[in-house]
Design goal:
3 helices
Length: 98
């Protein structure tokens, strides 16, 4: 299943299972592009964890894509989408380690 823009996915092919905030989806190539949660500022992570509606999540995606953060493009089959509760926990853990 193709994750949506604004979703958080786990990169399953890596031992550390980093989490990626999806900023773009390419249905034709079956890839997603995003930034690592670990690279986001604590304030951004807090905003991500508190954003529930799709419109506000898309606004946050736009803000993140305008930054100089490294972006990663990965095949969809190497991703596992987190549910909303999993996302909140992932964002909280990332904030705590910063």
């Amino acid at each position: 299943m193709m994750p949506a823009v604004g979703a958080v996915v786990v990169l399953t092919k890596l031992d550390s299972t980093p989490r990626l905030f999806v900023t773009a989806v390419d249905d034709g190539d079956d890839t997603v592009t995003g930034v690592l949660l670990a690279d986001l500022a604590a304030e951004t992570l807090q905003r991500l964890a508190s954003v529930g509606d799709r419109h506000r999540r898309e606004e946050l995606v736009l803000a993140v894509t305008q930054t100089e953060l490294a972006r990663f493009c990965v095949p969809v089959e190497e991703c596992r989408q987190l549910d909303e509760s999993g996302f909140d926990g992932a964002a909280r853990r990332e904030r705590e380690t910063q």
